[in-house]
């Protein structure tokens, strides 16, 4: 896997640098689960997908799951939620994110994929996820946790898509103004 800047990953997807109708996969990495969300084929809307169980011994199986998802959804890359601190630096919780990405890279199964980190701080579970899940009135703690992780991935990916699409429109409008 290759780390790209957020805009580089999006530009490759939009410009068709991979496959036609490429999508992105959002990841919310936790200590026990990895929530997953996938973009629509126009890379405008994030949709909840699933949750993978995370242990120290199942990294190879997780990589296999990602390989399957890459094929099934024509994925071009991963948007990995990353907890930056207020100064834009890594927070202590970022270690588990870096460890997972590093372990996935070591498997060699995702060598042709790219990823970017996206600040997950503004997709807090209180602001985004709990507002989405509150009407469901979930009572099972495990179901609540897995749904929270899945929808956290939706929030991470949606914020990335919104930001990148806004930047793309802004750049396109600037170019059009320069042409007149």
Q: Quick gist of this model?
A:
This protein has helices at 6-14, 59-73, 94-107, 125-133, 141-179, and strands spanning 2-3, 23-29, 33-39, 46-53, 75-82, 114-119.
Secondary structure layout:
Blueprint (H helix, E strand, L loop, with lengths): L1 E2 L2 H9 L8 E7 L3 E7 L6 E8 L5 H15 L1 E8 L11 H14 L6 E6 L5 H9 L7 H39 L1
Parallel strand pairs: 1-6, 2-5, 5-6
Antiparallel strand pairs: 2-3, 3-4
Helix pairs in contact: 1-5, 2-3, 4-5
GO molecular function, one term: hydrolase activity
InterPro entries: RNaseH-like_sf (IPR012337), YqgF (IPR005227), YqgF/RNaseH-like_dom (IPR006641), YqgF/RNaseH-like_dom_sf (IPR037027)
GO biological process, one term: rRNA 5'-end processing
Kindly describe this structure.
The structure is a single chain. The protein is α/β, with parallel strands linked by helices and about 180 residues long. Strand 5, helix 3 and strand 6 form a beta-alpha-beta unit. It has a single domain, classed as Nucleotidyltransferase, domain 5, CATH 3.30.420. Helix 1 packs across helix 5, helix 2 packs across helix 3 and helix 4 packs across helix 5. Strands 1-6-5-2-3-4 form a six-stranded mixed β-sheet. Helices cover about 50% and strands about 20% of the residues. It contains five helices and six strands, in the order βαβββαβαβαα.
